[in-house]
Specification:
The protein has one domain: Jelly Rolls, CATH 2.60.120.10. The strands form three sheets. Strands 1-2-3-10-5-8 form a six-stranded antiparallel sheet, with no helix packed on it. A three-stranded antiparallel sheet has the order 7-6-9, with no helix packed on it. The chain has a two-stranded antiparallel ribbon with strand order 4-11. It is an all-beta fold. A hairpin with a 5-residue loop joins strand 6 and strand 7. The protein is globular, with a radius of gyration of 14 Å. The chain has strands spanning about 15, 20-25, 35-40, 50, 55-65, 65-70, 75-80, 85, 90-95, 100-110, 115-120.
Length: about 120
């Protein structure tokens, strides 16, 4: 690993099959221990049930409000400042219950790769 500064390029946002928009902030083999993505869920939308194999994911809610479902936990309301810890293999989804975009960081250890993603 070498020191570097990664500048935000908001033009790289893409739609992911899960049902949200993703901007990769840091996700490459030079820093395989962690990936950081900005996720955006539009009002009224819910991401698909899914899990990550071998990857722990953490959500940090930045803007908006929603309902998150993780594993066998009861659905929980979330808003700016809340953190959600999702162990490997736990089913998960999030719904935007607000009138504006729900925006959160998704921090994955080790880094997220599409092969770790499984839709349910």
């Amino acid at each position: 690993m070498k020191p570097c500064i990664k500048k935000l390029d908001s033009d790289t946002e893409y739609y992911f099959d899960e049902g949200c928009f993703i901007t990769e902030l840091s996700n490459d083999a030079d820093d395989a221990d962690l990936s950081i993505a900005r996720a955006r869920v539009e009002p009224g939308k819910t991401t698909q049930w899914h899990y990550l194999q071998g990857v722990t994911e953490r959500y940090v809610i930045l803007e908006g409000s929603g309902i998150v479902e993780v594993g066998d936990l009861e659905p929980q309301s979330v808003s700016a400042g809340d953190s959600i810890i999702i162990p490997p293999g736990e089913r998960q989804r999030i719904r935007n219950t607000g009138s504006t975009d729900l925006i959160f960081l998704a921090l994955c250890t080790p880094r997220f790769t599409k092969k770790a993603y499984s839709s349910l």
